[in-house]
Amino acid sequence: MKAIRYHEVGGPEVLRLEEVPDPVPGPGEVRIRVRAAGVNFADTERRRGLYDAQAPLPRILGSEAAGVVESVGPGVDASWLGRRVVALTVRSYAELATAREEALLVLPERVSFEEGAGLLVQGLTAWHLVHTMGRLSAGQSVLIHAAAGGVGLLAIQLAKAAGARVLGTVSTESKARLAREHGADEVLLYSEGDVAERVRALTGGRGVELVLDSVGASTWKSSLESLAPFGHLVSYGNASGQPPPVDVESLFEKSLKVSAYWLHTIHPPELQRQAREALRAELVEGRLRMQVGLVLDLAQAAEAHRQLEGRNTVGKVVLRVP
Ligand SMILES: NC(=O)c1ccc[n+]([C@@H]2O[C@H](COP(=O)([O-])OP(=O)(O)OC[C@H]3O[C@@H](n4cnc5c(N)ncnc54)[C@H](OP(=O)(O)O)[C@@H]3O)[C@@H](O)[C@H]2O)c1
After folding, report:
1. CA–CA distance, 230 with 219 (Å, rounded to integer)
2. Mutation test of ligand 1: which of 121, 151, 219, 309 has the most ligand atoms closer than 8 Å to its C-beta?
3. Which domain holds residue 25?
């Protein structure tokens, strides 16, 4: 099969389309003919050697796939054959990928492969940020950084569905428009002045109960300063670099909480099932809109990375597999 691999860490140009052996589904696994592979910001960090740096090379990137089950391994129900699915997996920048049976989610008929490819990594992350970590409830306010990104647009919608008031930050006016279209009540441009000051002005001087921060170094200070007393900052990414170490002493005055979320932490299976089913139901019933911002062919993976790390994308970035 054809797959995108890199042999050394570096710029987008290290991603190459190569011929590699077909993966064989092991016990409890299926093989998916990939139609769309999700691209995630973390893939660009892996390629740059900033994340998962100990993984052996050459390496095929990709952690989610949408496609059709074309073969099943030992012990797997044959009724999966031919079904349209999405799955959390590995090595999905490829024509074929294997996934564990329990990682499969049947793709509703009205949802395209491109839309489905963004459902799991970004969707589950957004769901756990809003519910498992943030415990957001009606009447609370949340500040979401990188609000027009893949996770950001989904987090806006899930936070609105929970009854919260949503404030977002973005880098451009067109991203601000898109975040508003997805339900954000207030969207701030980083360039238009002190974010925390504006957040406090928009919340009657109080601040927000929850901040979801994937940007890290450049937003950290404003995230802490935007919190209301007893507020909670959840860190889940470092797109602009690592934030400074947490100074616990500085949290006392407002009794603040700082935590971190990682999708690869082993989640209680029941919680993960609940999150996946909730996302699927939101999608089927048309309450969750998957914004596919950029679709490129598998062979153009390097360009997809360039656009994503250059802050030129909105919503989901997808590699279509012809
Ligand atoms: N913890 C987890 O388990 C988990 C899971 C999934 C994703 N994540 C993290 O969540 C974040 C969002 O992921 P995503 O795939 O949905 O990406 P994304 O948000 O679509 O893209 C990243 C966005 O970050 C913003 N950004 C701010 N400073 C940046 C900088 N210096 N360089 C590049 N981008 C910068 C940009 O938005 P503006 O131009 O509007 O600033 C950019 O569009 C990433 O940090 C990712 O690592 C974490």
Report:
1. 19
2. 151
3. 2-119+290-320
